[in-house]
Design goal:
The structure holds 2 protein chains of 2 kinds. Chain A is mainly alpha-helical. Chain A has helices at about 10-25, 30-45, 50-75, 90-115, 120-130, 130-160, 170-200, 220-235, 240, 255-285, and strands spanning about 80-85, 85-90. The longest helix of chain B has 19 residues, at about 1-20. Classes of the chains: A mainly alpha, B alpha+beta. β1 of chain A pairs antiparallel with β1 (about 25) of chain B, so a sheet runs across the interface. Chain A: It comes from Kurthia zopfii.
Chain lengths: ~290, ~180
């Protein structure tokens, strides 16, 4: 029973890179919207209701801010609606701001999905064949921020319980929060990087160890990698025809034939996860 | 932390809006239906806008921009405008483009270190549209001033021309 996370790390890396490159290189609105919806659904499968709601609120606020910034500073476009400080605000700019806001949201959610798909051992696996030092450095760097977050939460809870924030002054409470934040991340930085010394002591860099392969490159991995590469090659060759432009007049939104393949790739995680979930429940019902 | 970042971004936006202001105008209010009448005692300047350097070089532009290069390259034929007291090149350009409904995008004088308005695009032809060295330059009475458009104060009888250059002015006689 295959879930999306079980694909080979190389397949996953190529997949996420492909999505991000397609998103920002071609900027096709339909692709951007579908990517956001699909990856958000994929990410939300592994989350509780509160996290999903928090994430939705954050993404909506971020998108709103990006839209406002874009509308305030971009004045290209052939169809003015009104003028702001003697510069036109056009329908093209408003459409562009919506698409860019969703693109940033899609990038954010892609990163969230990537974090789920890539625990530390996968990062080490990817880079250890090239350079073990890089593998250790990269995995420690990636772990620094999550460790810092955990440390920050622990310390905040402990300090709140002993009345550290009992001051009336908002600025004093803010100052204390910032101080705890800095100390937590500094502490995480120190502790995370000591781990490399421990791993080194255990012979991780000695070259004498062999490692058992957790990840196998299966037939499905091969099919996905080859399909992604072919699709990307075709899209790059047809870049002039496929790229979407917003100014001065919006390009008409059409779905080129190659985009159907892109839609399949975009929906892959959610389809595989749903299939795995249905299978699991089916087998469980047979017990 | 994400909430804090959003709050900081909102504060930056509010400060920007506060300092740049919010002057809203409808399309009808903005586009001038009448420009100053030229009288016998009026002080006059002339203004012309062209993108002749792009005629025959449309391949340098993206396909969606090529339709905005006129066949003869002339966006605004030389016309006379009343010179108001203290008018700069930018003031005349802005009035003319508003009256003739020519698209204009500029960066305000307070938004750059030169303290002058900077012309980013006219008629949807922007700086860098035809390469890294392309953009708009202006000349007054046949000479290319070395000050920004809103720092050049005009006199009676001045002739202003805006040209689109592909190569930092080398193709229009205005190289540094």
């Amino acid at each position: 029973m295959l879930t999306f996370h079980q694909f080979h790390p190389l397949t996953l890396t190529l997949y996420y890179l492909f999505l991000l490159v397609i998103l920002w290189l071609f900027k096709a609105p339909i692709v951007i919207f579908l990517l956001f919806i699909s990856l958000f659904l994929f990410w939300s499968i592994s989350q509780n209701r509160k996290s999903i709601l928090n994430e939705l609120v954050f993404v909506a606020s971020l998108s709103g801010l990006i839209m406002l910034f874009t509308i305030y500073f971009y004045h290209n476009g052939a169809t003015p609606i009104f003028y702001l400080n003697d510069q036109a605000v056009t329908t093209e700019v408003i459409f562009y701001s919506i698409v860019m806001a969703v693109a940033v949201a899609a990038t954010w959610i892609t990163w969230q999905a990537l974090i789920i798909s890539f625990p530390m051992k996968k990062i080490i696996y990817l880079t250890s064949n090239r350079s073990i030092t890089l593998a250790i450095a990269l995995s420690n760097f990636v772990r620094w921020i999550p460790n810092g977050k955990i440390q920050f939460q622990k310390v905040m809870e402990a300090q709140q319980s002993i009345g550290y924030f009992s001051s009336q002054s908002k600025f004093e409470r803010m100052y204390k929060t910032v101080k705890i934040w800095m100390n937590s991340y500094y502490n995480a930085f120190e502790n995370t990087f000591q781990k490399s010394a421990v791993m080194h002591e255990r012979g991780f860099k000695s070259g004498k160890r062999t490692h058992f392969q957790h990840y196998r490159f299966r037939k499905t991995d091969c099919i996905i990698v080859v399909s992604i590469l072919i699709t990307f090659f075709i899209m790059v060759i047809n870049y002039a025809q496929l790229r979407y432009y917003f100014f001065p007049l919006r390009k008409e939104m059409t779905v080129e034939p190659i985009y159907w393949l892109v839609f399949v790739f975009i929906s892959l995680p959610i389809i595989i996860q749903i299939k795995g979930w249905v299978q699991w429940h089916y087998y469980k019902s047979k017990i | 932390m994400r909430k804090d970042l959003l709050i900081i971004a909102s504060i930056i936006l509010l400060i920007t809006i506060f300092f740049t202001g919010t002057k809203f105008q409808s399309v009808e209010e903005f586009e001038l239906t009448h420009i100053d009448d030229i009288k016998a005692d009026s002080e006059i300047v002339t203004l012309a806008i062209d993108s002749k350097s792009l005629v025959g070089n449309e391949h340098l532009l993206k396909p969606e921009l090529r339709e905005f290069v006129p066949k003869d390259g002339i966006i605004l034929k030389r016309k006379e405008y009343v010179l108001r007291n203290g008018d700069t090149v930018f003031d005349v350009l802005q009035r003319a483009t508003r009256f003739h409904k020519i698209q204009l995008e500029f960066q305000g004088a307070n938004d750059n270190v030169f303290k002058s308005a900077y012309i980013q695009g006219i008629n949807y032809l922007y700086e860098f549209s035809a390469g890294a060295n392309s953009g708009w330059m202006y000349e007054v009475n046949g000479e290319f001033p070395d000050v920004g458009v809103s720092r050049y104060t005009l006199k009676n009888g001045d002739h202003i021309e805006f040209h689109f250059t592909k190569n930092l002015g080398k193709d229009i006689g205005g190289e540094f």
